[in-house]
């Protein structure tokens, strides 16, 4: 079995660092799910029974004022082709306009969205709960998973969560 996960989030939240934990495996099984070349594969995670293919969705990362309707449409179409969305934020930064831009896009798709709070190594555990509460008000996330992509904390748990859902 294989599943496609779009990875989205503002610049510098740690998307590439996270991918370094899962890159290195080739795609073993070609999924029959609709996929187009506009979706760039960033990395593949495999275990005994499953592969999770992480997809970059160009256009949705950059909340530029002049981002045209056409580009927004492309990004939304890309999101429609995946099984789930990984929305990464930085635990060390609060909620920001860039996040609202992305959440507005999420409203238009009907896919489970997993909020991944990265860089938990930078914050006191007491800071985490208010952040979680804040984001819970913004969107109905499938699950909220705190990780440290740099130190690897909870990354395996995140993969287990995806494996359960895909
Ligand atoms: P991207 O723009 O979302 O791909 O973010 P990057 O993966 O390039 O990371 C941006 C910066 O954040 C880099 O300096 C990373 O080393 C740092 N970073 C990423 N993940 C973590 C983390 O879990 N903890 C800490 N402390 N730094 C991180
Ligand atoms: Mg990057």
Automatic annotation (TrEMBL):
Residues 35-39 are annotated as: G2. The keyword Transferase does not apply. GTP binds at residues 9-16, 56-60, 118-121. Monomer. Keywords: Cell membrane, Cytoplasm, GTP-binding, Membrane, Nucleotide-binding, Ribosome biogenesis, RNA-binding, rRNA-binding. Residues 118-121 are annotated as: G4. Belongs to the TRAFAC class TrmE-Era-EngA-EngB-Septin-like GTPase superfamily. Era GTPase family. Residues 1-166 form the Era-type G domain. Residues 9-16 are annotated as: G1. An essential GTPase that binds both GDP and GTP, with rapid nucleotide exchange. Plays a role in 16S rRNA processing and 30S ribosomal subunit biogenesis and possibly also in cell cycle regulation and energy metabolism. It is a peripheral membrane protein. It is found in: Cytoplasm; Cell membrane. Residues 147-149 are annotated as: G5. This is GTPase Era. The keyword Cell membrane applies. Residues 56-59 are annotated as: G3.
């Amino acid at each position: 079995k294989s599943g496609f996960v779009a990875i989205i989030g503002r610049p510098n939240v740690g998307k590439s660092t996270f991918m370094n934990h899962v890159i290195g495996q080739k795609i073993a099984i070609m999924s029959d799910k609709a996929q187009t070349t506009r979706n760039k594969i960033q990395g593949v995670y495999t275990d005994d029974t499953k592969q999770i293919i992480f997809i970059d969705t160009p256009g949705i990362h950059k909340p530029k004022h002049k981002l045209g309707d056409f580009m927004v449409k492309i990004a939304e179409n890309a999101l429609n082709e995946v099984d789930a969305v990984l929305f990464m934020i930085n635990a060390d930064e609060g909620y920001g306009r860039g996040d609202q831009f992305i959440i507005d896009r999420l409203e238009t798709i009907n896919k489970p969205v997993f909020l991944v709070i990265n860089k938990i190594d930078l914050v006191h555990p007491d800071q985490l709960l208010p952040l979680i509460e804040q984001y819970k008000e913004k969107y109905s996330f499938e699950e909220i998973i705190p990780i440290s992509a740099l130190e690897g904390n909870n990354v395996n748990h995140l993969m287990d969560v995806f494996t359960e859902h895909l």
